[in-house]
């Protein structure tokens, strides 16, 4: 085929993909691989390699995907499950693909038109649902979403309104009236017809950005006033906005009560995900490990599990650590940093995309989500496809200065050096993570200056809340249920804590201490122990370490104290309690005392 034929097919695919991403996941998953096959069939590999290796965006995207690929080595789940997770981030590989597809101005114009056309169809069908009362697509008259869920539709419509506003500013033509009508219809749809809180937030952020782009610092203050006024007006006049905002307020109250509604669950997801990050902070737990790790944390607490924390930064951090999150943030940074080099109006539109992704990922996993991830890759290619603009820019990109900053690209030699450096650092990070950080999810408390261990319990009880907390102790032995056992006998000792009502739903750490006295020993011969990771160790004279974390205390919880054989005769007194965030202790007022009798006596 001739070059002209390939160009024609490329433009057709670009239009079809731009139309399919907001409307059909199936078509998107068919057309994107076809676009890749087209590029492979087209040839000119050396030219394409030269473009990609000098492009400022391809390296961060590929490095992030490379870290995700390496994460399959240490994942606790099966390779099939890890592979499914990796496949969900294939949009990172589509970024170089779309950069190669959007190499001429006419293709970029067609791509932008295709996206706006898809959103125009979505908008008209949404109004048709409201006007006719018909139920089709994914919604109905009470929430008229068409092809995607209300979060995605609100996000895409907000972006479309912003793109139209930028075109209105930069391209004063006779079509301005059409842009104005489109913007007003979108705003009304988002504020008065649909329910997406993400759409409200993104819309407000893009209004602030547009005002800043128009009037700089003064515009930012004007934008704050405008957004404040529009928010108040929408809250007073829109039942949808009022209802969604009130649900946030009610949800915060539900969270204090420990109830599992939408807002409390999202807060719980975030808090628990942060705990998971601290367990494997640098390299993460591995590709596809989020559901597994979250279930391990949530199951003992009796709280709802999830496969998605609704926060892309945490989703990446749990699986690929701060290294993965840092690369994702660096990708967003590079996109914003290089957006100023784009031609108008793509520079402003590109900045709107970065702001949308940056803020939206705080409350959703947009890179993980198929539709949002594909649109992100598509628009990155559309906007940044023009970089580098000329062959001369490609040759000097390593040292190019722009407004006092330097633009960094990478040569094959530098790429090899970078990969060698990563290969040297990764084992060090793995050792640090494996050996040093396992205890980071447990809280350590400095004890008072008084180093006499027997006085520790008195100190704790003085700080404890006066609220009495019932404890129900269960001792299961090979001979039945009792608190006197023989040495060498298998036992399972647990206790059930009935949490005080003011503490239900609060964050707490479980503390388990034990005082062991040999037979006929005096009080000064007491040996103090603490439970750590299912083992009993001597109590640290300087640090009291907690055993288990609860992001939300349930009404009652079961705590495992000991399982196995007791080899030494004597008396063991166990103290179990929980530590609240304000460092107040709630300890059992009735001690758990276990008599260990030497076998044969």
Task: Describe the structure in your own words.
- This protein has a domain at about 445-595: Coagulation Factor XIII, Chain A, domain 1 (Distorted Sandwich).
- It is about 55% helix and about 15% strand.
- It contains 19 helices and 15 strands.
- The strands form four sheets. Strands 5, 7, 8, 9, 11, 13, 14 and 15 form an eight-stranded mixed β-sheet that branches. The protein has a three-stranded antiparallel β-sheet with strand order 4-6-12, with no helix packed on it. It has a two-stranded antiparallel sheet with strand order 1-2.
- A hairpin with a 4-residue loop joins strand 13 and strand 14 (about 585).
- Helix 12 (about 260-280) packs across helix 14 (about 310-340).
- The chain is elongated.
The residue ranges in which pLDDT falls below 50 over 5 or more consecutive positions are: 390-417, 426-441
Strand content: 5-15%
Our measurement of the CA-to-CA distance between the termini, rounded to an integer number of angstroms, reads 95 Å
Q: In CATH's first tier, which class of the domain at 444-597 applies? A: Mainly Beta
What is the number of E strands?
A: 15
The rough form would be described as elongated
Major sheet attributes: 8 strands, mixed
**Radius of gyration, Cα only, in angstroms?**
30 Å
Estimated helix fraction: 55-70%
**Name of the CATH architecture of the domain at 444-597:** Distorted Sandwich
């Amino acid at each position: 085929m001739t070059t002209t034929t390939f160009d024609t097919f490329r433009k057709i695919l670009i239009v079809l993909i731009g139309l399919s991403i907001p409307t059909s996941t199936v078509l998107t998953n068919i057309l994107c691989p076809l676009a890749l096959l087209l590029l492979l069939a087209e040839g000119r590999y050396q030219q394409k390699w030269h473009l990609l290796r000098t492009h400022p965006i391809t390296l961060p995207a590929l490095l992030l995907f490379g870290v995700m690929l390496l994460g399959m080595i240490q994942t606790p789940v099966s390779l099939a499950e890890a592979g499914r997770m990796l496949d969900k981030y294939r949009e990172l590989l589509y970024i170089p693909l779309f950069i190669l597809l959007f190499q001429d101005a006419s293709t970029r114009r067609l791509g932008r038109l295709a996206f706006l056309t898809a959103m125009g169809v979505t908008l008209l069908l949404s109004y048709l649902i409201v006007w006719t009362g018909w139920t089709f697509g994914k919604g109905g008259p009470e929430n008229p979403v068409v092809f995607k869920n209300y979060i995605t539709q609100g996000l895409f419509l907000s972006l479309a309104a912003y793109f139209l506003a930028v075109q209105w500013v930069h391209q004063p033509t006779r079509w301005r009236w059409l842009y104005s009508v489109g913007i007003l219809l979108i705003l009304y749809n988002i504020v008065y017809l649909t329910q997406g809180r993400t759409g409200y937030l993104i819309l407000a952020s893009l209004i602030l950005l547009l005002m800043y782009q128009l009037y700089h610092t003064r515009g930012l203050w004007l934008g704050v006033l405008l957004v404040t006024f529009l928010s108040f007006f929408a809250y007073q006049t829109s039942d949808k906005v009022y209802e969604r905002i009130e649900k946030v307020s009610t949800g915060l109250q539900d969270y204090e009560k420990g109830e599992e509604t939408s807002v409390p669950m999202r807060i719980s997801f975030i808090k628990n995900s942060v705990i998971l990050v601290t367990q494997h902070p640098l390299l993460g737990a591995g590709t596809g490990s989020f559901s597994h790790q979250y279930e391990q944390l949530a199951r003992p607490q009796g709280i709802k599990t999830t496969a998605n924390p609704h926060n892309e930064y945490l989703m990446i951090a749990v699986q690929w650590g701060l290294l993965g999150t840092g690369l994702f943030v660096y990708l967003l940074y590079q996109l914003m940093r290089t957006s100023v080099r784009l031609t108008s109006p793509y520079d402003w539109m590109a900045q709107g995309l970065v702001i949308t992704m940056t803020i939206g990922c705080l409350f959703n996993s947009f890179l993980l989500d198929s539709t949002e991830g594909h649109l992100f890759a598509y628009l990155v290619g559309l906007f940044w496809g023009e970089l580098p603009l000329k062959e001369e820019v490609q040759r000097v990109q390593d040292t190019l200065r722009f407004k006092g900053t330097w633009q960094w690209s990478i040569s094959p030699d530098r790429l090899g050096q970078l990969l060698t450096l990563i290969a040297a650092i990764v084992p060090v990070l793995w050792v640090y993570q494996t050996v040093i950080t396992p205890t980071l999810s447990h809280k350590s408390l400095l004890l008072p200056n008084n180093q006499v261990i027997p006085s520790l319990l008195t100190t704790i009880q003085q700080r404890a809340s006066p609220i009495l907390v019932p404890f129900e102790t269960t001792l299961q032995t090979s001979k039945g249920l009792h608190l006197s056992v023989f040495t060498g006998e298998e036992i399972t000792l647990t206790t059930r804590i009935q949490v005080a009502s003011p503490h239900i739903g609060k964050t707490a750490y479980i503390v388990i201490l034990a005082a062991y006295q040999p037979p006929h020993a005096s009080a000064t011969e007491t040996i103090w122990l603490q439970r750590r990771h299912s083992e009993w160790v001597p109590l640290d004279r300087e640090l009291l370490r907690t055993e288990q974390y609860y992001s939300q205390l349930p009404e009652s919880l079961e705590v495992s104290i000991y399982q196995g054989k007791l080899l030494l005769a004597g008396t063991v007194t166990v103290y179990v309690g929980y530590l609240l965030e304000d460092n107040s202790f709630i300890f059992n007022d009735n001690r758990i005392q276990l008599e260990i009798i030497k076998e044969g006596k």
